[in-house]
Amino acid sequence: MRRLLLFLAAWTGFAAVAPAQITPPTAPPALPAAPADWLLRELDNSPILRQHHAGLQLTDVASGEVLAAWHADKYFTPASTQKMLTLYAALRILPDSVPALRYVVRGDTLLFRGTADPTFLHGDVPSTRAYQLLRRWPGPVAYTETPMADAKLGPGWSWDDYPYYFQPERGPFPIYGHTVRFYYRRPGQSAVAVRPAWFKASTQKAPTGATSPDHVRRELEANRYTWFPTPRAWVDEVPFRTDHTLLLTLLRDTLKREVQPAPWRLRPGETARTYYGLNVDSLLRRCIRVSDNFLAEQTLLLCSAQLGHDTLSIARTMKHVRQQGWLRPLPDSVAWVDGSGLSRQNLTTPRNQVALLLELHKLVPEARLFDLLAAGGRQGTLKRAYRDPKGLWFWGKTGTLTNNHNLCGYLRTRSGRLLAVSFMNNNHLAETSVIRREMERVLTLVREQL
């Protein structure tokens, strides 16, 4: 009996600290009857979907009618489909152009600080406006670090993904996307091209006979890189470890001028101004179409800066979204801990994702919304799936982690109906390609029959 009492005490103590954000509502709404019974039978009888945790919801965008709900009230790890929440927050908060930096002119000196804009000399969405401002300023320039409440890596991220392009560190003034690019242009060459070139001094060729599954390896706690020759050419990206001193060094190196550190203390009568860069859709399009984790994380930090927070904080952006009631249309609570979906601590339901898709469709014109998304057979992570040479029929966002593959977006049926879709698969041991093909088979049936 004593052991039983101790066990119960320990169990109840654990339950008391369970995350509040994933507690379901007191009386969750019942799932509506779904007209597409044939689809539910198809899902139940699928040998591929049978063993793992899977769920789907289809809703008519025009009427709001739920056409199919299969485990749609169950919680899943969303992976990169979580970026649709980031997109929603950004469309609500950010202006038409990306806030590139904040600045004050003091005499002939330009004092500037970051807003978390990730596009400064970024390799894929480079913005040159802030760069040109700092390069051409006729007087001295001085940088001050914007405080950041968040850690450089997010909660629940896999530590051993540190050397891979999809998990750079977050920061208040990113440069080069916080990654180094290596170019091995022809087999047999004795050196690789490095961008930014400043890292070339800390890059070495692997010893003869050494092998690696990766083209380039970085030390865990240092910006020292080793590259491995192969029979084929390649381009690889590897994150670098960030700090205030390295940022100043890279700014001086690329601007070809002195950049001094300085405190951010506004004098009486001084007002900081915002300098704007890229059109915001250029940032969001790249973030969503190719599922860029770094851009997604920085986008939520950008939102924090736009809301006037002196300290950049992803948690404050999320809190603002909740306080504004923007998540109220979602039927279930959401565990939301990062902007990219890298964390397995994120949790949501298929019917939550569909509700979010309906809100996005109301928020911005359809043409603009679909342009931001990956498109079947056309662009982004859906380029090789959902093809039809006669026209597009699926726009959306994929999300993949080991043993998880999800999809949410908009499906245009043969009859012309537009459906909001969430199809989630967690804890599968099958190859992702097998899950992906089965999802496409099922959604092609939906396209033909609804």
Automatic annotation (TrEMBL):
Gene3D superfamilies tied to this protein: DD-peptidase/beta-lactamase superfamily
Name used for this protein in its record: Peptidase S13
InterPro entries noted in UniProt: Beta-lactam/transpept-like, Peptidase_S13
Upper lineage: Bacteria, Pseudomonadati, Bacteroidota, Cytophagia, Cytophagales
Family stated for the protein in its record: Belongs to the peptidase S13 family.
Keyword list, A-Z: Hydrolase, Signal
Cell cycle in keyword set: no
Transmembrane stretches, start-end: none
Signal peptide: 1-20
Molecular function as annotated in GO: serine-type carboxypeptidase activity
UniProt GO BP: peptidoglycan metabolic process; proteolysis
Keyword field contains Signal: yes
